[in-house]
Amino acid sequence: MINIKNRIEQPTIIELLAFCAGSSSDRVEQTVEDYKEQNELELYGFEAEGKVIGIIGYRMHENQMELKHIAVSPEQRYKGIGSLMINAMMNLTKSDQVIAETDDDAVDFYRSSGFTIYSLGEKYPGVERYRCEFEVE
Asked: Which residues form the N-acetyltransferase domain (predicted)?
């Protein structure tokens, strides 16, 4: 895992951010600006053969890591990279708890990674959201 916050404008990283921030260019641009302007937001990448194939963005609240973004390039999915990134960041940050909010598209990833899932209901019209929590034992 490497800190890639200073490389956030690279096309590969923007493409990965678009998978989790939404395909709207305005949302992706806002997400890039948020990482550039907000010191508390961190962005790390997972490299294979010199190429960033996964990203994980988070904010710390004392010993709690709040996942903001996580994505793996489509051709590298289902290989455990997402869970590996979460575990690496938990070790790096010494987190006691990891939380995330997601929708139907990613809730199974969090469930299979050992997170407890709570429905938040329909926060946006037609979109059910979930709170995902993982407690470090």
From this structure: 2-137
The closest of 90, 134, 91, 95 to 112, measured between CA atoms, is: 134
pLDDT tens sequence across 25-84: 888 899 999 999 999 999 999 999 889 999 999 999 999 999 999 999 999 998 999 999
Question: How many CB atoms within 10 Å of residue 81?
Answer: 19
Number of compact structural domains in the chain: 1
100's CB contacts (< 8 A; 6+ apart) are 66, 67, 70, 110, 115, 131, 132
Nearest one of 108, 62, 59, 115 to 87, comparing CA atoms: 115
- Domain containing 77 equals 2-135
Q: How many CA atoms lie within 13 A of 106 on its CB side?
A: 23
Per-residue pLDDT, 136: 83
pTM, to two decimals: 0.89
Q: Give the CATH number, domain containing residue 94.
A: 3.40.630.30
Confidence of residue 23 (pLDDT cuts 50, 70, 90): low
